[in-house]
Specification:
115 residues; alpha+beta; HIT family, subunit A; 2 helices; globular
């Protein structure tokens, strides 16, 4: 845990959030500024600043993050129409909180390229 990390404080229960999923490795919360009708953030409990900080030993954790994202998409009813998974890396790409997290977004059409 990083003492000054917003998401670490949410994971620790110090800041309220709307929890969608919680287990020993991963939590999923509703985004407070959603960009789609469904917008859920899936993050590890472990503080990892961004995807650039991942190493091979994080493989099982990444598998869990993506499995939870798929479960969230199913439970939110966005699988059939399609959904977007996004990981922003660095402020130039839109990462506003330096804690690895995966955006699960759906419920509306998305264009390509994003941004």
């Amino acid at each position: 845990m990083s003492a000054d990390c917003l998401f670490c404080k949410i994971v620790a229960g110090e800041i309220p959030s709307t929890m969608v999923h919680e287990d020993d490795l991963v939590v999923a919360i509703r985004d407070i500024a959603p960009r789609a009708p469904t917008h859920v953030l899936v993050m590890p409990r472990e503080h990892i600043p961004s995807a650039v900080d991942l190493a091979e030993e994080h493989g099982p954790l990444l598998g869990r993050l993506f499995a939870v994202a798929a479960d969230v998409a199913r439970s939110e009813g966005i699988v059939d129409r399609g959904y977007r998974l996004t990981i922003n890396v660095g402020s130039g790409a839109g990462q506003s909180v330096p804690h690895l997290h995966l955006h699960v977004m759906g419920g509306r059409p998305f264009g390509w390229p994003p941004g």
